[in-house]
TrEMBL record:
This is Tetratricopeptide repeat protein. Keywords: Signal, TPR repeat. The keyword Signal applies. SUPFAM superfamilies: TPR-like (SSF48452). InterPro entries: TPR-like_helical_dom_sf, TPR_rpt. The keyword Calcium does not apply. It comes from Leptospira levettii. TPR repeats lie at residues 97-130. Pfam families: TPR_8 (PF13181).
Amino acid sequence: MKSILPLTLLLLVVAFENCASNKETIRPGVSKINTGSHLAQIEAIDADLKSSTLSDESRDKLIIKKGKLLLDLGRYEETITTLNQVNQAKANPVQLSEWNLAMGKAYIGKNEYNKAIQFLNQSEKLDKNTNLMERKRLVVQSLVAEREYYPALATLTKTYTKGNQKKDEFYYETAAKTYLKMGFEYKNTGFYQKGLQVANLGLEEFPNNETLKSIQKECLEVLQPEGKL
């Protein structure tokens, strides 16, 4: 792969600024919630937790449920504080996997991606089946946010290769975005060519995807002046 020529650097900066201006923040909560309903459920859980007849398992289930409600509300610090009340020593593997997943999401909400990855990986170790794709996607997004591009691409590829998982919009968007970021960071047109290739393949499957169209445009802005196409 050839290094980028000086005349292209200005275009490269412009392309990156366009990308940066549309930078997405990873947010693990649901997009639309009924805040009043969530708050009412939290209040009801708090009342139930005061019962002296609750078993440890029932108590932990309620705490995890409360943590998830707080997570949906974007109250990440409260989520972590709440979830830390779970008795991890007595929780069953599936329940503990669920706990780790919620903790991982909370740390993503706080932009503490390294911690999030640790919890997400532990969640998978405890239960490899439930929420598998959700965990993998969150790990990939966290790796990209930490600028761990090669591990992110390796994890993404492995996730969609293992079990013959059909490549979807998330795959194409994430791979193309990652190559675009690598192109700017490593000052190398080869990554822009890869980003364009992935974006083009994604648009064949999903022609109305605006994210892929944007990435395609940004890659072309860098590559066309050098006649790389």
